[in-house]
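Quick sanity check, NAD(P)-binding domain-containing protein:
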Amino acid sequence: MTYSLPRQLSSLLLATSILLWSCESFAPRPPPQRKVIVTGAAGRTGKLVFSSLLKQANFYPMGLVKSEKSAKKIIKDNAECGLENVWICDVTKLDSDNEGSLPNGIRGSDAMIICTSAVPKLRKRHLAKALLKAPINMLAGKKPLDFKTLQFYFAPGQHPEKVDYEGQIAQIDLAKKLGVSHVVLVSSMGGTNPDDFLNTLGKDKDGNGDGDILVWKRKAERYLVESGLQYTIIHPGHLKDTPGGLSELWLDVDDNIMMSPSHHMMSRCDVARLCVASLKVSGGQSSSFDCINIDVPEGTKSRPTEIALIEFLDAETTYDYSTDRKLDYSMNI
């Protein structure tokens, strides 16, 4: 014997099903996640950018790191991070014309944040000599240890021309190949001055060696500016491993900040916040700016990072790269 539901009950169930389907179909849906490539994701600034993006529901970060050890550490340090969020590759050797050399996970990315940089290493023997001279310097009324007299070097294949110029150009070309719409580049303040102390790192006392880190960074910046991609170029002052959001942000252009008596310090956390904020509030506007932390006036609160960036963008202050030709000539590059 077979049983069938009464016709009225069947009609009611059908109507209910249609109603539920309609509600699901037309209910507001959360915006799709933006896939963001973070290069140098294991570095001191890159890891903060990567971690910040992981914690925000509207972003899906893909961290590029150089070694398996770095990948394991990132996954261990971030509960939200899975194996699919991290890829191991040498960004200085990426070939945008060779599909086989590109990590599969980065395809379909909407933005790229470049946090790679050559890292100078201190010559330990030279430091030891300087420490031995410290008491003599004190007796003579001099500074015990002058940081600018120390000697630095870059690991083989990791000098500024290779990392900050060739490597970043490879990343910018990759962004174009992938159809990325917005590139954020973390660079450094001081690029308008070829005599800046940072350019001496990696050179000997006669000026020979693999240095000129700010010059090579600047050349990569100009390549990005002329690439046709939307860009945000961030020039932080002296980076400090301090909490973010505790100080006011001063944004300016053309190294004007360097002329001030301020300390020229910048929290890495605040740099990471600016990277993320640029993806949120820039719209289609490209920008390049210097940034440092300054004290918050008594009785006031610091502006949220996004507000500080919006106010800078609204002012439409632009960075002048036209002087770079003179810089190239003076450095014989």
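Posting the structure with no commentary besides this: The two ends are 93 Å apart (CA to CA).
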